TrEMBL record:
<keyword id="KW-0812">Transmembrane</keyword>
<keyword id="KW-0813">Transport</keyword>
<protein>
    <recommendedName>
        <fullName>Cytochrome bo(3) ubiquinol oxidase subunit 4</fullName>
    </recommendedName>
</protein>
<keyword id="KW-1003">Cell membrane</keyword>
<feature type="transmembrane region" description="Helical">
    <location>
        <begin position="43"/>
        <end position="66"/>
    </location>
</feature>
<keyword id="KW-1133">Transmembrane helix</keyword>
<dbReference type="InterPro" id="IPR014210">
    <property type="entry name" value="Cyt_o_ubiqinol_oxidase_su4"/>
</dbReference>
<feature type="transmembrane region" description="Helical">
    <location>
        <begin position="16"/>
        <end position="36"/>
    </location>
</feature>
<keyword id="KW-0249">Electron transport</keyword>
<comment type="function">
    <text>Cytochrome bo(3) ubiquinol terminal oxidase is the component of the aerobic respiratory chain of E.coli that predominates when cells are grown at high aeration. Has proton pump activity across the membrane in addition to electron transfer, pumping 2 protons/electron.</text>
</comment>
<dbReference type="InterPro" id="IPR050968">
    <property type="entry name" value="Cytochrome_c_oxidase_bac_sub4"/>
</dbReference>
<comment type="subunit">
    <text>Heterooctamer of two A chains, two B chains, two C chains and two D chains.</text>
</comment>
<feature type="transmembrane region" description="Helical">
    <location>
        <begin position="78"/>
        <end position="97"/>
    </location>
</feature>
<comment type="similarity">
    <text>Belongs to the cytochrome c oxidase bacterial subunit 4 family.</text>
</comment>
<dbReference type="InterPro" id="IPR005171">
    <property type="entry name" value="Cyt_c_oxidase_su4_prok"/>
</dbReference>
<keyword id="KW-0560">Oxidoreductase</keyword>
<dbReference type="Pfam" id="PF03626">
    <property type="entry name" value="COX4_pro"/>
</dbReference>
Length: 105
């Protein structure tokens, strides 16, 4: 292996374990909110949406190493694109589920 390949930052074990722990906690939060059923529909949807957004950002930053420091703006562009797609998917999913609910009742 060349020194060039070894000098690139691929993340540390600490960042991977931290990302895994945060992802598991966020998944359990969303699962717990749904299975307990003690919350209003709005609170459940808001909690699940926030957990999903935070989880995607955690995975992009800790696993895929997208940040605003390196690469002359390409990471920023990729992160902005990921955020736009994330907003479109979540907003579209909530809109579709709302309209399905209204048409089924």
């Amino acid at each position: 292996m060349s020194n060039e390949h070894q000098s690139t930052d691929h993340g540390s074990m600490k960042s991977y374990v931290t990302g895994l722990a945060i992802s598991i906690v966020l998944t359990l939060v969303a699962f717990g909110v749904v299975t307990l059923g003690n919350f209003s529909t709005t609170a459940m949807a808001l909690t699940i949406s926030i957990a999903a957004i935070v989880q995607v950002l955690v995975q992009l930053i800790l696993f895929m190493h997208l940040n605003v420091d390196d690469d002359g703006g390409w990471n920023v562009t990729s992160l902005a694109f990921a955020v736009v797609i994330l907003v479109l998917v979540i907003a579209g999913s909530l809109w579709i589920m709302h309209h399905l609910h209204m048409n089924m009742m």
